[in-house]
Design a protein that fits this description.
The chain is of the alpha/beta class. Helices cover about 50% and strands about 10% of the residues. The longest helix is centred in the middle third of the chain and has 22 residues, at about 265-290.
Length: about 475
């Protein structure tokens, strides 16, 4: 059976249809936050089969397969790639109402020109046809980036990374701008058992032994310089629980050395270290003109048994619920008071925080940068039709949706660029509904300006692309 995805998919009025087909559909893609592997871009990787490119690292799909009663052998285990694909095909008909039902069929249609519903009956034909396409040059990694008009890719990189792939792409002058993003989770997580070994790894990566906090900050600053020379536009921080505890440099230095010596830190000491270090990093980002992305509200690795078996990012994270408003206000205010607040993007995994973040962003705007502090795109569990719509409505109610920097994939898969299409369709329908409901004029020039800005131009300007 053919799919339900028509040209007017998710477009429910004439205004929406015109906005999407005449403007949004043809715009290039700025994918400013993802977890793609830059080495696969260097190598122009070809994938062996549909499972490798589609299911290999996609914990979104893994969660649904587990919910469908699929054995772990068929998800992350040692079953063949074809058996794993069949397990996913068995799951897809049970995903109605979940965005993965839409995403899966959009990906089959846009990447492979397969206009069939995926189920157990169609699976063998889809497997054969998709693999035939994958063997051709048209679906190598670089061909995919060209096909989807991708102009910018912002990968996610640890400060210890050598960034050799980014160097090679820069030397090649590759047509797609691929830039690293400074991911600092391990530098902030002083309360973990792995912190001291990571500091040692950072020292080896920079040929600089680190035995005190002053050296540690200097090395981080040198890595900011290193990342900046390779085109970095932003940092990224995943903050499970927000923190704010003021402290002086001397006290943080003592906490740092205490940790390196193997002593256990108190919760207050951990929060003091995180607060002081993040504010110092924020000042570094400000000097470089970077954006600081704060991902808030994820509770990670909830299933201890499976974490021990599979490690992080394997589908056992979920939505957290902690108070953040006062600590977030203090954090941003401290940087702003010193006139060192960088461009900042606030994301929350908990949609209950939408109003809080949208309102907070309005406290720290700038005449120099429209939308300097952003209420970021609907993220992860919110990356649904309702979640995207709610984010747009909240931003429009609380601030200016016109300066919003739009969508990102936040994905490890090169098959995820259709999420930009998904977002653009929801956006155009959102604007079209304002017109149809008499809440906005049918000024197509104005509406098209919104669409161009949100889908492309605002992010291009914000990240200096």
């Amino acid at each position: 059976m053919k799919t339900f995805i028509t040209d007017d998919f998710l477009l429910y009025n004439d205004t929406a249809k015109e906005l999407y087909h005449s403007v949004a559909k043809g715009l290039p893609v700025i994918d400013y936050h993802n977890h793609l592997n830059p080495l696969e871009i260097v190598e122009n990787k070809k994938f062996d089969n549909l499972t490798e490119i589609w299911l290999g690292e996609d914990h979104y799909k893994w969660r649904l397969m587990r919910a469908n009663g699929i054995s772990e052998d068929y998800i992350t285990g040692d079953r063949s790639d074809y058996e794993k694909f069949l397990a996913w095909a068995n799951t897809v008909p049970n995903t109605l109402g979940n965005p993965l039902y839409h995403w899966s069929h959009l990906e089959l249609l846009r990447y492979f020109d397969i206009d069939l519903l995926l189920d157990e009956k169609s699976a063998p034909l889809i497997w054969e046809e998709a693999n035939k396409r994958l063997r051709a040059d048209e679906l190598s990694v670089r061909s995919i980036l060209t096909k989807f008009k991708v102009e910018f890719v912002g990968t996610t990189d640890d400060p210890t990374d050598d960034l050799l792939a980014h160097k090679k792409l820069q030397e090649e002058n590759y047509q797609v701008l691929v830039a690293p993003t400074f991911r600092l989770d391990k530098a902030l997580n002083i309360g973990t058992d792995e912190f001291s070994s990571w500091v040692g790894k950072l020292g080896k990566a920079t040929n600089q032994p680190i035995d005190n906090y002053e050296t540690f900050l200097a090395v981080l600053e040198s890595r900011v310089e290193f990342f900046d020379k390779l085109g970095c536009r932003s940092s990224d921080h995943s903050l499970t629980v927000l923190f704010y505890e003021e402290a002086k440099f001397k006290e943080i230095s003592e906490i740092f050395v205490k940790k390196l010596k193997g002593s256990k830190l108190t919760k207050q000491e951990v929060e003091k270290y995180k607060t002081y270090t993040l504010t110092r990093l924020g000042e570094m980002y400000f000097e470089k003109g970077w954006a600081m992305q704060l991902h808030l509200g994820a509770t990670r690795n909830n299933n201890t048994r499976m974490f021990k078996k599979l490690g992080p990012d394997s589908g056992f994270d979920s939505i957290g619920d902690s108070l953040l408003v006062d600590k977030l206000a203090n954090l941003l205010d401290q940087l702003d008071a010193n006139k060192k607040l960088p461009k900042t993007v606030l994301y929350s995994l908990n949609s209950n925080d939408n109003n809080v973040l949208a309102a907070m962003a309005g406290n720290f705007q700038s005449s120099e940068i429209p939308g300097k502090v952003q209420f970021g795109a609907a993220w992860w569990f919110n990356d649904t039709i309702d979640g995207i719509k709610n984010q747009l409505e909240t931003l429009a109610n609380m601030g200016l949706v016109s300066t919003f920097i739009g969508m990102l994939t936040d994905s490890r898969s090169f098959l995820s660029f259709t999420r930009h299409e998904y977002f653009r369709r929801v956006l155009c329908n959102f604007l079209g509904n304002l017109v149809e409901e008499g809440k906005a004029p049918k000024d197509m020039a104005l509406l098209k300006k919104y669409v161009r800005g949100i889908c492309y131009e605002n992010a291009k300007r914000y990240f200096s692309i």
